[in-house]
Amino acid sequence: MRHTISILVENKFGVLSRVAGLFSGRGYNIESISVGETLDPKISVMTIVTEGEEAIVEQITKQLNKLIDVIKVQDLFEVEHVEREMVLIKITPPAQLKAEALRLAEIFRGRVVDSSQKTYTIEITGDEKKIEAFVELMKPMGVKEFVRSGKIAIAREKIRQ
Amino acid sequence: MKATGSQIIVESLKKEGVRHIFGYPGGVVLNIFDALYDAKDIKLFLTRHEQGATHMADGYARSTGKVGVALVTSGPGATNTVTGIATAAMDSIPIVVLTGQVPTMLIGNDAFQEADIVGITRPCCKYNYLVKDINDLAYTIKEAFHIASSGRPGPVVIDLPKDVSAATGKFHWPDKLNLRSYNPTMEGNRWMIEKAAEKITRSKKPVIIAGGGVILSGASDELRIFAEFTDIPVTTTLMGIGAFPTDHHLSLGMLGMHGTYYANMAIQESDLLIAVGMRFDDRVTGKIDAFAPNAEIIHIDIDPTSIRKNVDVDIPIVGDSTKVLFTLNQILKETDKPQWEEIRKSWIKHIDEWKKARPLSYRFDENIIKPQYVIEKLYEATGGDAIIATEVGQNQMWAAQFFKYKKPRTFLSSGGLGTMGYGFPAALGAQVAFPDKTVIDIAGDGSIQMNIQELATAVIYDLPVKVAILNNHYLGMVRQWQELFFNERYSHSYLHEVPSFVKIAEAYGAVGLRAEKPSDVEPVIREALRVRKPVFMDFVIDWKEKVYPMVPAGAPIDQMLFDEEPKKEEKKLKVIK
Lengths: 161, 577
Prior knowledge:
The structure holds 2 protein chains of 2 kinds.
Chain A (H helix, E strand, L loop, with lengths): L1 E9 L4 H11 L6 E6 L5 E9 L2 H13 L3 E6 L5 E11 L6 H10 L3 E5 L4 E7 L1 H11 L4 E6 L3 E4 L6
Chain B lengths: L1 E3 H11 L4 E4 L6 H9 L4 E4 L3 H15 L3 E5 L3 H4 L2 H9 L4 E7 L15 H5 L5 E4 L6 H13 L6 E6 H5 L1 E3 L19 H13 L3 E5 L1 H6 L2 H11 L3 E3 L14 E4 L6 H9 L2 E5 L5 H4 L10 E6 L13 E4 L2 H14 L5 H18 L13 H12 L4 E4 L3 H9 L8 E2 L10 H11 L5 E6 H4 L6 H6 L5 E6 L4 H10 L15 H8 L2 E5 L2 H13 L4 E6 L19 E4 L9 E4 L1
Parallel strand pairs in B: 2-3, 2-4, 4-5, 5-7, 6-7, 9-10, 9-12, 10-11, 12-13, 13-14, 15-16, 15-17, 17-18, 18-20, 19-20
Antiparallel strand pairs in B: 1-8, 21-22
Helix pairs in contact in B: 1-2, 1-7, 3-5, 3-18, 9-14, 11-14, 12-15, 16-17, 16-23
């Protein structure tokens, strides 16, 4: 199963390589990883997407917890959560499809962040399915380049009864 | 107090109670060595190789329970410590390795003798630091010692750039540490321990497996109380040797690949395993799917990652072995007193039958020295009152099987990493800690040649370590595997004519003795123990001798190979189930 793991770490140099090294050293796979500061500049949050059987993921979370710089590990698989990633996609639509491309971007709540005579660069955020659907639709438009941010995720708050 | 970085380092080490350091100087650590010149309460042992220094720190730590310290220079000095660091990491040994680094402004410039040692050691140490600011020095050292010695212990590396150790600042020793992300669980969960106690009460065929964690935590006394109160037999892993006295009537000796017949049979038959401070290494479990098929497992370990890593566990208890066993003992004593002896009677009887059927044994020969005989004689000559270090291979397994260990911290061996060349420097480290104890390194002719240069360290610092070289001109364990599993194709395991160990010993100023026939063994040992000098004892052993029992890699642990009396029509080796 695929798991999204959120990790609070000390914001020190070398921490990212400790975490990434743990995965490579033990033969676990990282599908995506994204890191950023939290409100407390001394703490960063990493979101790692990984895949494996239950026992493997249990080992991964335990091993992560064991790292000295790791403050908290949460496997979001176990809780309701919101996931997002961002994609910048540069397309070169043929003249007759330019309007269509823009219309599709609007339907998907994308934003055109750059354009040239031949290209549009569209920013789009959403969960994986939405992004995959959009990329699929853009394929006939001539995708020149595209770059994904890696996933970030946050647990949903419980609504009080 | 105004001080240089180097003085801060030395003062901090003093505050941590460091009395002995093992090290080797070089350009970027000259400031630290200069500060050590005046430090009368800290003695530095100059080794001949940085690997030797880390193993000495390791042997010092294993034999004392204190943190061992090594100090080396940057680049090649630092990279030479990697094997020692990885050895300590695999066996959870607390050492702090101080490495020099090029000045901060040169880091990353491929400067002379620069190596990214923080990057290199990251996967093989518990934690590491690069100290860039003199104001962080004291705190970092305090934190490093805390991390190395608490929780599941391990090696910590501190990389010290030259400009930091040369700078001037203030020495301020911190009162306390602020480590929000590191809080090892010490107390086991009470509810889980109660459940474990209940299972123990109901079990008919329980076995305790004690690992290195029992020794590291100092849980031997609690373990003994537990085993004796409940009448449960105890087997130990290689790392657990010494955790439970081998000559105790409940002792099963070691289990696993070269474990005793009775330990492995008991494990396979048991209905409950109580694993304490061990991690179900593949050398212990053999074929994992066939391991202890009828047993429920209680697993006590301070490291949550050890639990359910290799085997499924019914009752996981995360905590310090001493504390968990203490609570468990309390609970068991409060429960309505079952008649333990009655309950265990038939199980113990069954085990005693296994013990009688196939004890650890070998075939004595009058004409050629059997390695097991040497170990037995070492045991007799010392009365077991010695610290034994081993190298890796056949010598290590014979030392584990045929010497009887009564106390923890008396058997020093590279278990996890299997580091050839470990034993001799580790023995020297132990001898530094216990100058009046008999310290013996049981070695092979292959292993001893991996760190033989430390003989100089032994002679110069008057460390009278005795090295028993079981000399068979082969990499014995490699040869054994080639004989059993590779059709006797001895590819590069023959060491040819090895050097004269007697002459080597003499060349270094030590004592060299040689035994060529069984009747030489006792006199050689007696003479070695008599002289207060480092000694190489060169025992020319039967080169065909193998370590038995043996579980072939990947087989279930009750499928052991034994050394059978050869019968005419029968094959010499028999698989016995």
